[in-house]
Amino acid sequence: MKQSLLMEKYPVFDMELPKAETDFDSVEAIVAELKARIEETEGVVFIADFDHYAHTRDTGGQIDSKIKAARNVVFCFGRMLPNPHVLAVRPRSIGVCDMGDHFHIAFLEAPMEVANTAMESWCKNLFRRG
Fold this sequence. Notes:
Elements: E1 2-6, E2 10-18, H1 27-40, E3 45-51, H2 52-58, E4 69-76, E5 92-98, E6 102-108, H3 113-124
Antiparallel strand pairs: 1-2, 2-6, 3-4, 4-5, 5-6
InterPro entries: DUF6858
Pfam family, one: DUF6858
């Protein structure tokens, strides 16, 4: 997993997952796995599986020709609501793209370290074990 600034202001974690290094064969399979991890993590609530590719295509938007499928898994760790500002960084989302020979997985850094640790672990566990 690497960390970078998207557009010089958004802290993003992302990872390339070569198809030869995972047992998952589709974006849908990865989304199902992430959803299972979300559902088994105490205090985290699954919200939606958003087909970003279909939405962009159906609204006449532009899609990079290398992207074959793109979905967002939307969920929330929100264990506190200390002020109204925190709503700006919730809920969380992990994006999963099929880039042909690999999957690209990305998420925006959360202001809660436990959330970053969990999301990073879920993503790294997509690599084939053993």
